Amino acid sequence: MVEVSPDVIDVKSVTAWIGQHAHLDGPLQYQLIAGGRSNMTFTVTDGGQPRFVLRRPPMGPLLPSAHDMAREYRLMDALRDSDVPVPKMVGLCQDETVNGRDFYVMQFVDGIVVRDIEIASTIGVAARETMSESLIRTLVALHRVDIDEVGLGDLAKRSGYIERQVKRWTGQWESSRTRDLPIVDAVASQLLARMPEPNPTTIAHGDYRLSNCMVDSNGHVIAVLDWELCTLGEPMADLGGLLGYWHDPQDDDPTGDAESTGLPGFLDQNQLASLYAEEMGSDIDSISYYRAFAQWRLACIGEGVYARYLGGQQGEQDEEIDMEQMRNSVAERAERAAQLLGMD
């Protein structure tokens, strides 16, 4: 972690705001958690002990409808009494005089985020298997939440998920792209042309993966994080997204979750999909389509991330960023989507 710069967090103002909402006095320290590719995340410490986590949008211009702090806050607060583990919310600030942009604060959860292979390697084989199973069972718990009962029935439309997503991410692609990449547009057209029959609408996390969950030392998921892309929609899209980040033996140079989940103990993609189908009581005949959709969407997201790093909007990071790899991964994901769709 690196210390936060004053143009990102107004320490005096934000500390006063947290003090009012968490009923505490005294100075607080803020540190940026490196590795985030979208919204910026900070640990907030009190007397040397981590107490809270703060989330705010990146610096600079923002894409329309992106980085909605109120949406993230609402989702996790709504799930507080469900079977889906989420951090306890402290408060949402939409007064821009406090820190320039919206932010929210939640209680710190003491656990492990498996964000790279170095961390994954410290976890035992049995815990890796438990982690795989817990990820699927937590996803099933999310998809079983009654959206009306938790007050999220009006979060989004309950139909036309793929159409809405393709429209949204095509728009984001056009707003942030740094070069021409015709395959992105070609895959988008095929996704619309080949849509399978939808499953019943559920909460769709939108970015469900190993490194967006926190686990305990035994591998059990204790918190699901990063709800920025959550909506109401197709549950199979969440499963397809999880598999899109998972180890693929055909990937010559896996990174992130894929590199970690190639270690012994982790279930493979087919085992994950089968466990989901068993737990959820659904079939997975359309999984190739949703894996393709996930790869295409990740290509669009990746281009936005790459553009923000080029523009210096992600703040100072204490990790080395491979910009060339980040750029190349966009085309690689779009091509993988085309292959999964059987495009020539």
Please tell me about this protein's structure.
The protein is of the alpha+beta class. It has 2 domains: 2-107, Phosphorylase Kinase, domain 1 (2-Layer Sandwich), CATH 3.30.200.20; 117-340, Aminoglycoside phosphotransferase (APH), C-terminal lobe (Aminoglycoside 3'-phosphotransferase, Chain: A, domain 2), CATH 3.90.1200. The chain is built from 12 helices and 10 strands. The strands form 3 sheets. Strands 1-2-3-4-6-5 form a 6-stranded antiparallel beta sheet, with helices on both faces. A two-stranded antiparallel sheet has the order 7-10. It has a two-stranded antiparallel ribbon with strand order 8-9. A hairpin with a 5-residue loop joins strand 8 (213-215) and strand 9 (221-224). The chain starts with a strand and ends with a helix.
How much helix, percentage-wise, in residues? 40-55%
Order of helices and strands: EHEEEHEHEHHHHEEEEHHHHH
Q: Kindly state the number of beta strands.
A: 10
Mean pLDDT: 91
Shape: globular
Indicate the structural class.
alpha+beta
Low-pLDDT ranges: none
